[in-house]
Amino acid sequence: MRVTRLDIGGLRRFGQVTLAPGPTLNLITGDNGAGKTSILEAMHLMAYGRSFRGRVRDGLIREGAPAVEIFVEWIEAAGRIRRAGLRHSGQSWEGRLDGASVGHLGELCAALAVVTFEPGSHGLVTGPAETRRRLLDWGLFHVELDFLRVWRRYARALKQRNALLKAGARPAELDGWEAELADSGETITRSREAYLQQWQPLFATEAASLAPALGTTSLTLQPGWRHEEMRLADALLLARGRDQLAGFTSVGPHRADWKIGLSALPGREALSRGQAKLTALALLLSQARLHAELAGEWPVIALDDLASELDRHHQARVVQGLIDTGAQVFVTGTEAPAAFEHLTEAGGHPIARFHVEQGRLRAEGDAR
Ligand SMILES: Nc1ncnc2c1ncn2[C@@H]1O[C@H](COP(=O)(O)OP(=O)(O)OP(=O)(O)O)[C@@H](O)[C@H]1O
């Protein structure tokens, strides 16, 4: 998919800006604090319903503005033009997709696929389980039409069971919601397992190319209960007493994680920050490739501050690899990364260059 228009209003230092990106490589430069990351952040917000820099109400909305407003138009591989709008005030949000209101942010997220690599991405490897769970589910939301529905069933049942636990409900009152949790939870787990199995060889190839020092790699699901020993229904039943004391559900796919195995290192804790970044990049790029295989088109790739994240050699390899796939790519930097020095076009199209200055965006060659 390719973004053809991006309108941003009220986001960080932007009053109102519009970007008409090129079809392949887009380079956004500007001084520190100019607003480069904010452009990628706007796309990410539409595609994930959240920023990669914290909560919407914690500074994403421009000082004095009532809400952040984003509009994205993109074209799918099959030629269908899609349009999505999101208005977020910090407390509430409104979304539109192809002219109709959406009732769940997940509908916007499932429509527009963006993969973002940014300075905090190493958290995918070294951070909490929730970050990895979200990444895994992101992939599934896009390629399994039913995943969002099952996931919502699970979330609803979890909320109900937790409320009953907190209220000190009788054990028999938990039966119905536990059956629902077990049924939807087993389905989620099967999907996650199958997805990780498909992801694994692509990740192994990407990691071997980007970070051969890590050795052989593997991805293993930790489903959130002792899955090899018992069904989720039994695990929930077994955990009842403990859960009643704690007031929340301690087992199930909401507690899942997945393990990144690296044969050359004792564990992810042993990764240097640079190695963790390369591992995260290998995860994101291989997931983008998996998405392309399963969904039939590449997601949009956003690489924030590439030059400060990767050395020249890795920059060139990553950018060239992406150009070869034909994906639409956005790269930000205080100046053009070394990898672009000799590039004037990508995939047969000129590189689209933009400059951000004091909250204003200018396309190169545009005198405004
Ligand atoms: N809520 C807000 N209201 C107004 N301005 C804000 C708000 N939040 C952040 N800013 C400003 O917006 C800018 C954020 O820019 P952003 O992080 O996108 O810049 P950048 O070009 O990526 O910078 P760097 O190269 O330093 O990473 C900063 O100048 C910051 O001071």
TrEMBL record:
Residues 3-334 form the RecF/RecN/SMC N-terminal domain. ATP binds at G30, D31, N32, G33, A34, G35, K36, T37. SUPFAM superfamilies: P-loop containing nucleoside triphosphate hydrolases (SSF52540). The keyword Cytoplasm applies. PROSITE patterns: RECF_2 (PS00618). InterPro entries: DNA-binding_RecF, DNA-binding_RecF_CS, P-loop_NTPase, RecF/RecN/SMC_N, RecF_2. It is found in: Cytoplasm. Pfam families: SMC_N. Keywords: ATP-binding, Cytoplasm, DNA damage, DNA repair, DNA replication, DNA-binding, Nucleotide-binding, SOS response. PANTHER family: DNA REPLICATION AND REPAIR PROTEIN RECF. Belongs to the RecF family. The RecF protein is involved in DNA metabolism; it is required for DNA replication and normal SOS inducibility. RecF binds preferentially to single-stranded, linear DNA. It also seems to bind ATP. This is DNA replication and repair protein RecF. The gene is recF.
